[in-house]
Amino acid sequence: MTALRMKAISKHFGAIHALDDVSLSLEPGEVLGLMGDNGAGKSTLVKIIAGNFRPSHGTIFINDRETVFHGPLDAREHGIEIVYQDLALCDNLTAAVNVFLGRELTRSFGPFRIMDYPAMNRRAAELFAELKSETRPKDKVKSMSGGQRQAVAIARTRLSDASIVLMDEPTAAISVRQVAEVLNLINELKRQGIAVILISHRMPDVFAVTDRIVVLRRGTKVADKRTEATSPEEITGLITGAIEHA
């Protein structure tokens, strides 16, 4: 069963054609690298998958069933989560509270309901252990490395039992050691059968963890290749237009 299939997706903003007739598929446990220059259509495509935009034309299938998203909540109910580049974390709160942000666990205290911090800490610790991350539930996010912050954001997607995780430039502006942490997190999602779409400009990272690479240029798909069947040089040529199609 295919986790995600997009057939002939187009998105127009007035006279601007952000995407033209783009098709792609994603299998459970597959990591797909989505590459392209600025303005290639990567963000538009991801926002369509995440339910932020409705396509102008085309069809989306989730688990081989035709699906229409009316908003991000629809996408989340179909098992799609997105980790944005800025991560949307609250620095002054703990890792556990950030994992549960907007979905806090509570317990009754007489006529009142109070936050159940011990339960959130326990569940967050389980999620970090599943991801093989050393992130600690009670640590404040402001004291964390870039890799640990990514672990918090990814743990939040696991809370909703996502089957597809979209990651927007997760290794941008972090150290080499932290990049290794994030790539390990992606491999762990893959091991658990979760499909990942990795949007990145970092060629070594894409080649390190992906099974397949899709290249967009000016809103059209110019390549869809198994990672082992291509090279950084070919992908660079496809991104820049030095190579038309592959």
Layout: helices, strands, pairs:
Layout: E1 4-13, E2 16-26, E3 31-35, H1 42-49, E4 57-62, E5 65-67, H2 72-77, E6 80-83, H3 95-99, E7 106-109, E8 112-115, H4 117-130, H5 146-159, E9 164-168, H6 176-191, E10 195-199, H7 203-209, E11 212-217, E12 220-226, H8 232-240
Helix pairs in contact: 5-6
Walk me through the structure:
The protein is of the alpha/beta class and 246 residues long. It has a single domain (4-91, 144-240), classed as Rossmann fold, CATH 3.40.50. The chain has 8 helices and 12 strands. The strands form 3 sheets. A 6-stranded mixed sheet has the order 6-9-10-3-11-12, sandwiched between helices. α5 (146-159) runs parallel beside α6 (176-191). The radius of gyration is 19 Å and the shape is globular. The mean pLDDT is 93. GO terms for molecular function: ATP binding; ATP hydrolysis activity.
